[in-house]
């Protein structure tokens, strides 16, 4: 179940990044000042600059969220392995106790 949720979150994150990318690209394509590329090549328009800044901020936030989710999954896996090892040690101690007391078959 965790793997399925992780796969969904990765797909959702990828879809979000693609949507943001397409939105910023379509915003740049609809910019009327982009037709005067030669005239305004030295100085980008403020809306174009703002679009890029918003895109990069969203990209950083999405990257941070992805890294956080990945680190959380690794932490969960480590804790699960520790609990499993503790459980195995508990049963091994019970077996040793049974052998010492002669309760085994």
Automatic annotation (TrEMBL):
Which positions, given as ranges, span the membrane? 53-72
Endpoints of the signal sequence: 1-29
Does the keyword section mention Membrane?
yes
Keyword vocabulary terms for this entry: Membrane, Signal, Transmembrane, Transmembrane helix
Renumbered residue ranges of the record's region Disordered = 28-47
Instruction: Say which domain of life the source belongs to.
Output: Eukaryota
Q: Report whether Protein transport shows up as a keyword of the record.
A: no
UniProt name for this protein: Transmembrane protein
